[in-house]
Amino acid sequence: KAGVTQTPRYLIKTRGQQVTLSCSPISGHRSVSWYQQTPGQGLQFLFEYFSETQRNKGNFPGRFSGRQFSNSRSEMNVSTLELGDSALYLCATSPGTSGNYGYTFGSGTRLTVV
Amino acid sequence: GQQVMQIPQYQHVQEGEDFTTYCNSSTTLSNIQWYKQRPGGHPVFLIQLVKSGEVKKQKRLTFQFGEAKKNSSLHITATQTTDVGTYFCAGLLNDMRFGAGTRLTVKP
């Protein structure tokens, strides 16, 4: 059974650019949540998608957006990158909506903004 | 910001000693989950607690959910070097909110 796949694994971008990250969940997992992990702030919730609908959104600026496709794959986009956006971005998937099942995390995308 | 508080931030123990991390919320949680993240890795789900006062065990790990469903703890008996990592709690409010984690190091 394939795990949660996040691409790319590493990314270096320049301030002002935009970036798109991808997450392919385990087969049968319809919920995809995104988290930003930094040493100082821990795991911060970005948003959750279920059946192509955004169910919840964390306290991040509008530069952070996401979507989910009919096959449950999800993408998140960050526009006008800032240095502070450098972090590990993790997607977490589960069969149903958040909290009812344990998450399976991907290995993350390490984004560095220079 | 964080609505689930976790302490301590760091814990260094001698192999064989016990370890406990605590998780607290200002509001009642629907459930609580625990995860372990090894250095350089990603969080891995350990367990979910749902009922008030619930206690679950996994070998040397004991998980508790408080009576008021506002706090939880993870206790490891006789730590081993394989226990090294960061332990996170996550509580369900409107979404899953993670504590800041407790980083455990074990000296052989």
Spell out the key features of this protein.
heterodimer; A: 114 residues; mainly beta; seven-stranded mixed beta sheet; 11 strands; B: 108 residues; five-stranded antiparallel beta sheet; 56% strand
TL;DR?
With 114 residues, chain A is mainly β. Helices cover 0% and strands 53% of the residues of chain A. The model of chain A has no long low-confidence stretch (mean pLDDT 94).
| Biggest contact | A-B, 24 and 24 residues
Q: How much helicity do the residues of chain A have?
A: under 10%
Instruction: Give the helix/strand class of chain A.
Output: mainly beta
Name the quaternary structure: heterodimer
Give the biggest sheet of chain B.
6 strands, mixed
Order of helices and strands of chain A: EEEEEEEEEEE
The amount of beta strand of chain B, in percent, is: over 45%
Main sheet: strands, sense, barrel of chain A: 7 strands, mixed
